């Protein structure tokens, strides 16, 4: 059963616009919330990550906003570029051992030039 | 460093055939994982390993077996392939000492079972 719900499934944004992808989790025993970016034909790669004691983290044009009380977190891509077109996965890692990570279903982003 | 490599890249099987997917990493990572990726389902964990000689079940282990005889290799086996196992398979590894436990993924194996 999926414990991390991601929306939307797909997203089309104009070049220079803001892309927003949302995720919600059910289990409170998560201690790490990464976002992965996947280009066609490639494996996912870590984009940015946040711990639950921080409400926001920014790296370049990418920002994670985290709302612990609502159990929600989101990825904002500012000034979206065609090169950002990819599939994005939010994820959550439980406290339990093995460093298992639970992934959302993914969002396919297309940035129109 | 090659990072995480997967063999083969593509494979077509007939129902009932068996095969082994090989994952190798040269980063001396302790943890390794096998996922399957299906449209609209994200990445689902099949099996994982926290060290040489140890394996554990993930979310969707049925129909698969794994072995980790060497730290750098993690094998995924399908004993009797079924069409429901048509998917893209990704291997990943993690260095347990990293602050964010970043997962490093291989390029994937696209498997079709007819």
Q: Tell me what portion of residues of chain A adopts beta-strand conformation.
A: over 45%
- The helix fraction of chain A, in percent, is under 10%
Distance, first to last CA of chain A: 37 Å
Mean pLDDT rating of chain A: 92
Number of alpha- plus pi-helical segments of chain A: 0
For the terminal residues of chain B, how far apart are their CA atoms? Answer: 36 Å
The tally of strands of chain B reads 11
**What profile does the largest beta sheet of chain A have?**
6 strands, mixed
* Category from helices, strands and their pairing of chain A: mainly beta
Question: Mind sketching the topology for me?
Answer:
The complex is a heterodimer of chains A (113) and B (114).
Chain A lengths: L3 E4 L2 E5 L4 E7 L4 E9 L6 E6 L5 E4 L2 E6 L4 E6 L8 E9 L7 E2 L3 E6 L1
Parallel strand pairs in A: 2-11
Antiparallel strand pairs in A: 1-3, 3-8, 4-5, 4-9, 6-7, 7-8, 9-10, 9-11
Chain B lengths: L3 E4 L2 E4 L5 E7 L5 E8 L3 E10 L2 E4 L6 E4 L5 E6 L8 E8 L9 E2 L3 E5 L1
Parallel strand pairs in B: 2-11
Antiparallel strand pairs in B: 1-3, 3-8, 4-5, 4-9, 5-6, 7-8, 9-10, 9-11
Describe this structure in words.
The complex is a heterodimer of chains A (113) and B (114). Chain A starts with a strand and ends with a strand. In chain A, strands 2, 4, 5, 9, 10 and 11 form a six-stranded mixed sheet that branches. Chain A has a five-stranded antiparallel sheet with strand order 1-3-8-7-6, with no helix packed on it. The mean pLDDT of chain A is 92. Helices cover 0% and strands 57% of the residues of chain A. Chain B has 114 residues and is an all-beta fold. Chain B is 0% helix and 54% strand.
Features:
heterodimer; A: 113 residues; mainly beta; six-stranded mixed beta sheet; five-stranded antiparallel beta sheet; 11 strands; 0% helix; B: 114 residues; seven-stranded mixed beta sheet; four-stranded antiparallel beta sheet; globular
């Amino acid at each position: 059963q999926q414990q991390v719900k991601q929306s939307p499934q797909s997203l089309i944004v104009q070049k220079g616009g803001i892309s927003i992808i949302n995720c919600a989790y059910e289990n409170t025993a998560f201690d790490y919330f990464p976002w992965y970016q996947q280009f066609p034909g490639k494996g996912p790669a870590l984009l940015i990550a946040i711990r639950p004691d921080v409400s926001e983290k920014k790296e370049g044009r990418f920002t994670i906003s985290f709302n612990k009380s609502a159990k929600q977190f989101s990825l904002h891509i500012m000034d979206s570029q065609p090169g950002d077109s990819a599939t994005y996965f939010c994820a959550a890692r439980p406290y339990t051992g093995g460093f298992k990570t639970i992934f959302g279903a993914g969002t396919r982003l297309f940035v129109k030039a | 460093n090659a990072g995480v490599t997967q063999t083969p890249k593509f494979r077509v099987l007939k129902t009932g055939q068996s095969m082994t997917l090989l994952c190798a990493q040269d980063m001396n990572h302790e943890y390794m994982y096998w996922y399957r990726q299906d449209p609209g389902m994200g990445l689902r964990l099949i099996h994982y390993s926290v060290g040489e000689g140890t394996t554990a079940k993930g979310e969707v282990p049925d129909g698969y077996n794994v072995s980790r005889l060497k730290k750098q290799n993690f094998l995924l086996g399908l004993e009797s392939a079924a069409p429901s196992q048509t998917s893209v398979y990704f291997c990943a590894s993690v260095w347990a000492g990293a602050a964010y436990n970043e997962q490093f993924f291989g390029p994937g194996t696209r498997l079709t079972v007819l």
